[in-house]
Amino acid sequence: MVRSGDSGTVVTDSAGRSVYLYVYDTTDPPRSACTGGCVADWPIVPAPTHLRAGRGISAKLGVLVRPGGVRQLTLAGNPLYYFAGDQRPGDIRGQGIGGVWFLLDPSGDAVTSSEPVFSNAFPTILTTLGTRHSSLGTVVTDPEGQTLYMYTEDPSGQSACTASWCVADWLPLLAQQTPTAASDITGTVGTIHRPDGTAQVTLDGHPLYAFTGDLVPGDVRGEGIGGTWFALDPAGHPIPEPS
After folding, report:
1. What is the pTM assigned to this prediction?
2. 176 in helix, strand or coil?
3. CB contact at 8 A, 47 and 30
4. Displacement of CA 32 from its chain's centroid (Å)
């Protein structure tokens, strides 16, 4: 289907849920670069047995057969995805994330009129970790007030977020000097070394990340995405997703 809104006329599924393309995918032939943990954040749009485009869709629908025989819907050759952070039809929280995920127009082209939330560059800690009140309660932030998250797939003392899809969505918080924390943070602050040799800040052993989908300081749009990303409280404990 198509839906008109602030981002113009965009493509949705039959229930009105927003669908996205990934700029690192190829269209001729269709090939998905979103594999492994990427699919937890960006679930594929499954392809039905019989393809039928709704009124207003001018691009051709197709099917990409993924490893294991899973059928993914394509539009103009673009593999289509949902965003795990979209909670209801009409949500477009995935638009522009990392500068690589975009809504589609009816011809199958990326809708890039909405400015990406973050530039795709790693933030660097210059002073101390802080805290800020949010809808989740008090959360740990970077020096600019941006909410920080932990990743449940990270093994002890390491970061599992090293693939291009992951660091585009979840920016590792890096340190150029010994990190410190505000007085109300009781968790232990430290660092780990990433595979590229940079030092990533940790809190109680959890490597810390900023989410490119958070628009302003205090946003917690990354909370619970894929069931693996969670904000932290000042003690360094993950904050459960609200029920």
Report:
1. 0.77
2. coil
3. no
4. 17
- Nearest residue to 165 via CA among 79, 239, 231, 91: 79
The tokens for 25 are 């995918």
CA dist list (Å): 226 to 11, 107, 153, 169:
22, 29, 11, 12
Q: Is the pLDDT of residue 118 over 50?
A: no
Scan for tokens 């150029």, then name that residue.
176
How, if at all, do strands 61-65 and 71-75 pair? antiparallel
Cβ(204)–Cβ(236) below 8 Å:
yes
Non-local (6+) Cβ contacts of 88 within 8 A are none
pLDDT(103) > 70? yes
In whole angstroms, give the CA distance from residue 159 to residue 138: 24
